[in-house]
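WARN no homologs supplied; continuing
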Amino acid sequence: MTQTHRNPDPRRSARSALVALSFFTAGSLVMLACGPKVTPVVPNSDVPTATATATATAIPTAVGMTDESTDENAKAERFEMNASAKVAYERGMKAWAVGDLPGARAAFTEATQADGKAYQAFYSLGVVMERMGEASGALDAYRNAFTALPSYEPALSAYGLSLARRGSLAEADDFLTDKLQRMPKSAAIMASLAEVKSMKRDTGTAQRLAQDALKLLPSYAPAMVVLARDHYRNRRLDLAHYALDAIVGKEGIEDNNNPPRDRNNPEAHLLRAVIYKEQNRRSLAVTSFEKAITLRPDLVDARIQLAAYLLESGNAAAAKPLLDQALQFQREHIQGHLNLGDALRLLGDIPGAKREFDWVVSKDPNLPQVHYSLGLLYLFAETVPGVSGKKPQLEQAIAEFEKFQQLRGKPSAAAADDSDQLITRAKNNLEAMNAQEQAAAAAASAAASAAAAASAAPPAASGSAPPAASAPPADSAAPTP
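OK structure emitted
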């Protein structure tokens, strides 16, 4: 959503290259959301694993986890699912690749029913369920995956990070700390625990754990992304840029003596884009968002943030497809629905916009931005479903803007918005309508009074006026003598 209004307002190829868990931690949203490009990553199987992106917030905190183990002992324990399960699993991956989450969910469920130890299928089922907003079911699926294979790093990390996304940071910390004690050579679990420590604002431990993961695997890009993200969270932007340069290379510069560790890391490009956006470097931010989407079309948050840029410039027609695709891959993404509502409003689809805003209110009635957007809808739309007449619309617009201000609190000078001006505009329009109604009522009253006065006037006297006396006839001309 964007707090930018037009005045007046007539107003992300078939499989994922990474088994990644990509999510956003708490913070203010600027956009803030998606079918995955996939190269099979095969441990002892030719079965790839799905990718997850989590909830809507501003700081990208993706911890990429490939299906290839980072622990040699754990890798030796891998086994394949049976043939029937593999068929269903591959069908699920095809559905996932085109954003068909219900289809992917059904196919992955079928795979787990065909093979109760198909840990990859349980993990992918958890990813899809998390995208579909079924957080408890996702945790159960992740737990089933590492119950089938206790050393399966993607599911262990996903479980811990899912707890963290739900706000259970202490539980996530305890879980991953216990798993790391059992698997001290797992760079993946080490990086995931570093992420949780960073989310807890324990930057010292986060940095140490990520560095320890890099000592185990010097080119392990997910650990480098955690380092960069922790620098970003703690406002060390120069160090964040430095870490991102090491991962994907310096922007526009080729350094053959120091090549990037993972040039095509989508989470690194996303984080770089977020930093560029914060620094008002629009062109570089757009390029980085587009790069992240190209590398991982299911990266929901890259699509939603790029769409927000387009909405700010009034290009709702280009923003809408990005938002539609984002919501295919994460249908419960609140910011995605909010931005889609703004896009539909700008495109003139008032019923569609109202439907999206109402959905957001049903999920989070205390989100200030949705009330701002509803205010714009009521203020500028000709008609709004469920509201009879322009005056009730204006009254509702004022109520929504005032609700926005109440939830937003007092803004700083840098965060000032135009809600006061919009309230004034709505009140002026309402006063003008009231004045017109009063003038019309006065005119109608005057006309009625005149008509009543005319009907009350005495009638003219009865009878005919006497005829005028006729003139005497003219004398006849004298005869010619």
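Residues 1-66, 470-481 have pLDDT under 50 and may be disordered.
OK
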